[in-house]
Each structure stands twice: as C-alpha cells, then as structure tokens.
Amino acid sequence: MTDPLALDPILPARERSERSARPWNEELPHDERYQLFEAHVLGGGKIEPNDWMPDEYRTAVLRFVEMHANSELMGVLPEREWIMRAPTLRRKLALTSKVQDEVGHAQLLYRVAEDLGKPREAMFDDLLAGKTKFHNVFHYPTRTWADIGIIAWLVDAAAIVAQQALRDSSYGPYARTMQKICWEESVHIMHGRDVVLTLANGTPSQRAMVQEALDRWWGPLMQMHGPRSDRTKDRDLHWRIKAKTSEELRQEFLTIYVPRILEMGLTIPDPELRFDAEAGEWRYADPDWAELRAVVTNHGPKSEERLEFRRLNRAATAWVREAILAAPEAAA
Amino acid sequence: MTTRALDASTQAALADFLLSMADDEFVIGYSDSEWTGIAPILEEDVAISSIAQDELGHARALYELLAGLLDDGRDADAIAYDREPEAYRHAPLLDHGRGDWADTMARRFLYDTADTARLGAIGGGWPPLAELVAKIRREERYHVMHVTLWAERLARAGGDARARFVAALEALAPDAPSVLAAPEGEAALLEAGILVRPMAATVDEWRADVARILGPLGISLALGSGAAPRPTRTTASADFRWLWGEFTSVRRSEVGATW
Fold first, then answer.
1. Chain B contact for A93, CB < 8 A?
2. Beta carbons of A99 and B36 less than 8 Å apart
3. CATH number attached to the domain at A32-312
4. B257 vs A203: CB contact, 8 Å cut-off?
5. CA distance A164 to A39
6. Contact call for B40 and A320, based on CB within 8 A
7. Can you give the residue ranges of every domain in chain A?
C-alpha cells in the first residue's frame, strides 16, 4: 500500500519504452484483432489514442474519464465558495491554488475524453442536462471553514486512493494524466491536513467546528467508492481501466486515515468501526447506499443548485467563447 | 530586516505608498479570484487564477515590508484583514464589483498598464522595496501580455464582444488615472530616491502606452491630461463593502484565533 504523500511523479520505465509492435493495428479479421488487443491489455500494455480499440473499450474509457472530468469540474464549486472567505493570506493563496488545480484537472481530463471522440461542449451539455454524473461528495453543501479542511484532507485522500490505482490504467493518456493529478492531490492533502490540524488545536469553538464537519462528511466519504462489487463482473477491472474494487479502495482509505484522524483528537462517528485483525479488514456500519443512489442521480442536497449555477454561468459567458473561437474580423 | 535609516516624514510617506500599492494588489487579486472555477474557458480559468495568486503574493510581500517598517506588532495578515472598510487605500479603479468578463479584462488592462508604469517609477532608495519590485516586474510582464492578447481578441471580434469591451473601458476610464495619483509624501519619496520621477511624468508615460496598444484597435480613451487628481481613497463602495464582508467573515467569527 502506498502512502499518498509519498508519490513518485516519474513515469515507470515500461510505460516510457512501450512503443513496440502493436499487431492489432494491422488489417485483420475483427476477432483476431480483438484477441491481440485483449492479450496486450491483459498483459499490462498501454493503449494509445491512435490505436485500434474495440468500441466497448472506447466507450468504457470515455464513460470513466468523462465522469472523472465532470467530478473535477463540479468539485470546484463547493470549495470555490470559500475562496473569498479564506481567513489569512496564506490560506487564501493555498485555496485559490487548490481550486485552480481542480479546474486544471478537469481541463486535462476533458482533453483525454475529447480524444476518444466526444467534443467538450457535448460533455458539458450532457452534464448540465443530468445525463452524465459526478461524484457523490460534490452534491453536498460546505457550511463552515472546517469543511474546507475536511474536503482537502479526507475527500481528496479518498479520491487519491482511487486515483493512484489509475496511474497504471491501460489507457495511456489517462494513466499519464493521473501521474500529474496524483502529485497535485498529495499537495492538497497537506493543505487540508494543516487546516484541520490548526482548527483541532484551536479554540473550543474551532474544535467543535471541525468535529461537526467530520460528522457530516463521514457518511458521504464511506459511500464515495461505491458498494461492494463482484470483481469478475467488472469490465473496467477486466480491461485494467481501473485496478481495484470499491471495497479494496475503502479498506485502503480506512487503513491509512483512521489512525490519522484519531491522532488529530477527532472522533469518527461510527460506533461499529473497528479493525478485524482475524479477517484483516475494517468493519464498519453499512453505508447508506440509498442515499448514494439518490445523490448521484442528482437528488442530493445541492445537486440541482450547482447544476443550475453552472448552466447560468455557461450562458453568461457564452459571448466570450463565441467571440474568441470565431475567426478575428479585423486581424485577417 | 536591515534598512537604511529613513527620517520620519519619508517613513510616513513610504508607509502610505506601500499600503496603497498593497491594497491595490490585494483587491484586484480578490476580484480576479472570483473567476476561479467559473471563467469562460477552462484554459483561461487556470490563467486568471494564476494571475490572482500573483497579485495576492505581491500584496502579501508588500504588507510584510510594511509590517517591518511600521513595527507596531501587526503582521501582514493583521494589516490585510483587520481594518474597517474605510481604512483600505486601493484606487477607485478597483472599487467596482467583479462585473462580467469584459469588465474584468478592461479593469485588468487599465490596472496592469498603470501598475507597470508605477513600478517603473520606483528607484533604489529603499533597497527592500527595490528588490521586491524587480521580482514583481518579472511577473507583471506576463500579466500585460495576457491582457493585451485579450484586448486584441475582444476588440477584433467585433459585434457584441467589442461593444462590451469598449463600454467597459469607457466606464472605467475616469477612475483609471487614480492608480497613478501622486502619493501624499511624493516630495519626500523623490528626495529619498524611492521614486525616481514624479507621478505626473509616470501618468504621461502610461497614457502613451495605452494609446499605443488601443490605437491600432481603433479605440481611443479619455484618460484626462496632466497629473492625475488625487482621489479620495477612503470612501469604500457598496461593492467593496460586500467584498470586505466576505473576506473578513471567517476571521471575524473568532477574533484573535489562529486560522
């Protein structure tokens, strides 16, 4: 298990040198091609945008990356509300930079998705029409400054556990993008931890504020990776688009972060939470999966408000895109 | 910090000048950061956020210099955040709300060009400021390049985009020279070599610079003539009071706490 704060930003040698023969790109009967493609992927090889790929693979990668991009874009909004309220120059700079990173991640990921054949505007259309999704944690309100600490520390930590596993995705452009994203996310975790630590060591009302934030975010955090799933039936795992199941990710998150949360003097709001040494895994109260289903289908407490905010903003700035994406009038 | 001994009137003039510059950078940095996450294009979102961070970084460095100079127990944060709205000294050009993208680019254009001229007027009379200015000027060059590109794109797009941009420039033009109004103790700053020329000369240079960029775009702005009238820097607008309410809200919720 890797500590998210000890990431290696360098591409593995295998990935850099992998430009060997790609026999499935030759004109071959479909089934033969498919088998060569699959052997390459299952053997740990990377797929590049110009490679031939089965439609099912293209669709699966696109769906996965698009949801990730949507989540980065929508994930900007809860924290953005606090950029104007950050209480010191240092926090102001750190939070602006953090949210800027998330926007940058959205941009990088939409570019990866665009290469798979779906234009950026079409992805915005689908997101704002509720046809595509974004992660559950970005459907909730941010009520206090402590939320900024808890999001940057624990939401980003839960995300990074999943994202580290994606640095080895079979889709090359996604894997490489995740290298950069994971590196930046690890900086966010340090920023979030520092905000939480400052509050936890602060006045009684600051301590109460951070505990209250943890109490509210714990449920969504435990739901974030999704319900337990059957490894053998997961196509994204089969094609190594992703590497770990929901439960593996949740267990990893708990193993790293439960001790750190407790060290901070905070209480985790789950009386059933304990490590079962015999089974070698964490036991916890069953997350509210009905809530997760409702939230990710845009029935969360802030889903509609945030989508509407994006719709209004997109309409209000449309004139700028029209102006600069058109050919200049006088310059020609 | 080791600084050359300044007499009391020069020190007071320098403190006033530093506070005005720091507040300018602080307020425009805040206004720009309002676009973080909602700029018209993702690529531009990243750019405007970087610019906002540069400005806030400059503000912080200037407040730190001021804190060292005043040595009255306040740190940069206390100076930046713990004042009543009336005590902020930013130029009236920056006392407007964020507005739309045309307003933002017009404000940036007028401020960046004026700020460049102002930085160029600062000499080596007080080394800590001269060293900081050298660093700030390296970053501000890119801000001017960025906003000049936007000015050209919006102006040359014609139609609605040009009309919005020109209207925004015209609306802000009367307030623009306020950035280069002569500071209270200008004579003392000139005497000490902290300024190398009076603001009246600097404002002429800035007007020529603006005309050089906007002229080819067919835009002519009325930016006054002669020395810029000294504005009243103490009447905070309703827009600024909103901004102040936001940026002090967490800090005021637990006065004296560490954040």
1. yes
2. yes
3. 1.20.1260.10
4. yes
5. 24
6. yes
7. 32-312
User: Is A80 within 8 Å of B36 when comparing Cβ atoms?
Assistant: yes
Measure B9 CA to nearest chain A CA, in Å: 29
Contact by Cβ (8 Å): A117, A155: no
> In the structure, what pLDDT confidence band is assigned to residue A314 with cuts at 50, 70 and 90?
very high
Q: pLDDT tens for residues A28-57?
A: 999 999 999 999 999 999 999 999 999 999
Q: Looking at beta carbons, which residues of chain A come within 8 Å of B257?
A: 202-203, 206
The segments of chain B whose pLDDT lies below 70 read: 1-4, 232-235
pLDDT tens per residue across span A318-329: 999 999 887 555
Neighboring chain B residues of A106 at a CB cutoff of 8 Å: 42
Interface predicted TM-score (ipTM) = 0.94
Residue B79: what residue type?
A: I
Out of B30, B77, B153, closest to residue A88 by CB: B77
| CA–CA separation, A77 and A304 (whole Å) | 13
Average pLDDT over residues A144-161: 97
For the record, the structure tokens of A109 come out as 């990921």
Q: How far is CA A281 from the centre of its chain?
A: 24
Q: Does A111 touch chain B (CB under 8 A)?
A: no
DSSP assignment string, A63-109: HHHHHHHHHHHHHHHHHHTTGGG-SSHHHHHHHHHHHHHHHHHHHHH
How many contacts does A have with B, using Cβ atoms within 8 A? 135
Assess contact for A199 and A34: CB atoms under 8 A.
Answer: no
pLDDT in the model for residue B114: 97
| Domain over B8-226+233-253 is classified CATH 1.20.1260.10 | yes
B187: closest CA of chain A, how far (Å) = 32
Question: Is residue A20's pLDDT more than 70?
Answer: no
Beta carbons within 8 Å of B83's beta carbon, 6+ residues apart: none
**Each residue of A248-284: pLDDT tens digit?**
999 999 999 999 999 999 999 999 999 999 999 999 9
Q: Which residue of B has its CA nearest to A145?
A: B250
Nearest to A210 by CA among A268, A136, A277: A268
